[in-house]
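Hi support team,

I'm opening this ticket because the web form for multi-chain structure prediction keeps timing out on my end. I have pasted the exact lines I submitted so you can reproduce it. The total is 592 residues across two entries, so I didn't expect it to be a heavy job. Is there a limit I'm missing, or should I split the entries? Thanks in advance, R.K.
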Amino acid sequence: MLGVVALGNPLRRDDGLGMRLLEALRERDLPDDVELYDAGTGGMRIIHKLADVDDVILIDVVRFGGEPGEFVWFSPDEVESIREEGASHDPNLFEAIELSRRLDEAPDRICCLGVQPEDLSMGEGLSEPVEAAIPALLESIEAKIDDLAG
Amino acid sequence: MSGQQLDVDVDVEYLTRVEGHGNIVVNAEDGELETCEWRVVESPRFFESMVKGRRWDELSLITSRICGICSISHSLASLKATEDALDIFVSTQDRQLRKLALYGEIIQSHVLHVGYLALPDLVDSKSVVPMAESHPDDVETVVKLHRLGNEMTELFAGRDVHATSFVPGGFSQIPDEEELENLRERLAGVDDDLNAVVELLVDLAPELPDFERETEYVSLTHDDEYAFYGGVIESSDTGKMPVGDYRDLTNEYVVPQSTAKYAKHARDAYLVGSLARFNNNYDQLSDRAKAVAEKFDLSPQETNPYLNTVAQVVETAHLVDASIELLDEILDRGLDEQEPHHKPDVDFGNGGRGVGAVDVPRGTLFHEYEYDENGECVEANCVIPTNQNHGNIQQDMEKLVPEIAATKSDDAVEKDLEMLVRAYDPCISCSTHYLDVDFVNE
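Hello R.K., no limit was hit. The queue was backed up. Here is the completed structure from your submission:
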């Protein structure tokens, strides 16, 4: 089973991007063994989803210094540090991944998709540049799904 | 202070292993305590304004996103406020199924706090991750219990986070009897795991600082059960008051050092959460939960706030027993089938105002809504448990620091203060999930 897991909060503008992408992916013709999952802001609970799937694509908003809407694929092993200031409430997606690995429950392949946000204020709806990135993001995710599920 | 000079300098920016951001700043020089502050760096919450203009059947979905750890709790407080405002009937079975969803969430939240956030302090580990190697069996047990709580919420709420099955008046979808029987079997088989966590904490409990400060303990209370889903407000100082009068309890106010609101009632501060519930409702705990409390010599009125973590373990045992009892009641009676996606017929009349209160992992949660004649929300108020505890944390710090600063090193004082805040299991600003990262070789 390949999990496509979105993290975020649709009431924090661009933080809701992952949920929008999942909605769009539900309309697509995806392989049978793909599970789309909205993890919201559930924190450590993600370890149980990681234990359930063979491979995983994690979609989140990531401030990596790019232009709003710009996205990057990365592996958790490429992450040098989590900046302390302004970091998320659940410190740590990467801590959850590490714990999952040490418990020998982690998916074989973990692919993270990070999208640079413009607006994380309270409210619904995405910023213009993040909204504009959706077609390219969907194309890139579908290519990754084909790659992992194929 | 035994005549020793008070001299301490502690500055913890962004306390780790709590949900959100809080800073601890303590400074004493030449025997004078100059600063001793619990500073909460919370983004202003705009949920109240965000739900204005939204329909009665949308609010629980929106408010479930306030917090990822307590999303079921927010959904339920929201539904109860809407049902109170618009006079919507909820059947006994639906109330029982909602309780099971809530109990699952509290089990997972308590285990998360005890196992992943508090235990590392007691074994001198920076986080739970290294414990997977230093204490592999314990971590495995913690993850197993956490998973059980998570699966319970998934079964009743439709998902493990941000419920999709809840609607005003009941559920859009309920589990079948076979699923309830399977869950009952799993809960009945959890004894060894529960005992393992209890024994581990019994061994480590002497590491919890010895500190006493009596305060006002506030929770819900109910004649028939250890209250979580419903009841009236109980204050250890002033007794019972109706949920509808919650503003007379919370009296929210602003302090200079924090962006979060604080609360006070009969004293300068009060405490909500497991320890308050334990103190107020001890007699209604299950026998097993009382036996767990006895292992820690925990009995009401307990005044050491560090023992909130122990009270969470006691409640976890109680919640397993209470869940089995509820499942037995439902299964013995036979599960009433109900139409999927049922939605009540609601007569909005001239609109209405209602309050929903639920005792959730960190304490008593209040939602209040006013609806107009079209069923649209015109006013909302939400008071979360952590905000009710901020003042009490501050008061604890002001008593604790002079007691320990003269004899302990700055590092030791810092650790005691960090553990104090963590004991409250604060959920400061858990409404967002973006990450800030630096990549290797960038």
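A quick check on our side: Chain B touches chain A through 52 residues (CB under 8 Å). Let us know if the file doesn't open in your viewer.
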